[in-house]
Amino acid sequence: MPDLWMPGAEKHDIGSHAATDAGPAKAIAHITWDKNATAAKPVDLVPFANLKAYFTGGGKGVAPHVLWDPFHGTFAQFLPANSRSFSVEDHTGGTRTNRAGSVVLQVEALFFPYCRVDGKVYAHLTDTPLKGWDSLHAWIKSWGVPDTWPMGVPNGFTSHRDEHTWETRAGWYGHGQVPENTHTDPGTWPAFPAPPKAAAGSSGSAPALQPFPGAAFFMSGSKPAIGKSSAIFTAMGKRLVVEGCGHYKVGPGPKLGQADVDSYQAFQRKCGFTGSAAKWPPGKTTWDRLQVPKVV
Predict the structure, then answer these.
(1) CA distance 41 to 106
(2) How far apart are CA 265 and CA 184, in angstroms?
(3) pTM of the full structure
(4) Distance between CA 245 and CA 142 in Å, rounded?
(5) Which of 90, 120, 148, 202 gives 171 a disulfide partner, CB atoms 3.0 to 4.6 angstroms apart?
(6) Are 278 and 269 in contact (CB under 8 A)?
(7) Dihedral sign, CA of 174, 26, 182, 77?
(8) What's the pLDDT tens digit per position in 146-172?
(9) Three-state secondary-structure class, residue 61
């Protein structure tokens, strides 16, 4: 199972946990937008500590999962990943905006247009240093949220909403794309980190991939084949780490362990599978997507 609490984030559990619904895994991108500034009249950024105090105090009712400071790469988390959070409106009788997925991870970036930090003015979130984005992205990806924007990449403070898309498609959504809401943020959002390129072979072609060995290879009767040894498990584990799904304290290595099982299940969720379809053992579809190098 992926980490309920983002590694490296300050943990400030505000309680009031509640389960999400089954369905496509989602993330929602917000900015705090706690000041109204302009190019002619920029305003100093509100301190991270102020927002942290707000979301653990009087603002508990609108708290996200994670508050992210893109200037310093610091994070505070207020609810575990498998709970709904509170940063979007959820009207009675409508779609379940805070719960409509296996996870609905909400991130508030500490930012507003024309904020000023150390004398420099930033018009867009993507103008900031974006410190910590790779770590935040990897954690969210480990929960099965794919690198896609079903309603389009945010580009300006506009809204575009479709309830059917929201209910049926996994991926990232801007606050301005969530049904039952009127906000138009985040304006922009950082690009997904590029996957590493496969090393070229001596002939200049991509390396051969390990064929799917069949589901039975990974099982001992009805249970995972814990303790079985194969170089395939090492190669598989290394690819799971690259995909942001690794749950290894040591390794990966040739002996199949629970960390391999947890990591692969995280990858299957990342690929959009839910429920029993996301469970061990690996399937051919996700194995082919993982692109495990051929073991000699």
Answers:
(1) 30
(2) 34
(3) 0.69
(4) 5
(5) 148
(6) yes
(7) negative
(8) 999 999 999 899 888 999 999 999 999
(9) helix
Contact 102, 271 (CB under 8 A): no
Alpha helices of the chain — where are they, by DSSP H? 48-55, 133-142, 163-168, 231-242, 258-270, 284-290
Alpha-carbon distances, residue 118 vs 21, 44, 63, 75, 262 (angstroms):
43, 9, 27, 20, 43
Taking the CB of residue 4, how many other CB atoms lie within 10 A of it? 14
Per residue in 71-130, pLDDT tens?
A: 999 999 999 999 999 999 988 888 889 899 999 999 999 999 999 999 999 999 999 999
Q: What is the mean pLDDT of each run of 10 residues along the chain (296 residues)?
A: 88 96 94 97 98 98 97 96 95 87 96 97 95 93 92 91 92 96 94 67 66 92 94 93 84 92 90 81 89 88
Long-range interactions of 95-98: CB distance < 8 A, separation 24+: 95/163, 95/166, 95/167, 95/179, 95/180, 96/21, 97/166, 97/178, 97/179, 97/180, 97/181, 98/20
Tokens of 193: 């980190």
- Report whether 15 contacts 79 (CB < 8 A): no
Find where tokens 């490296």 sit.
8
**Distance between CA 215 and CA 150 in Å, rounded?**
31
User: Which tokens go with 178?
Assistant: 């969530």
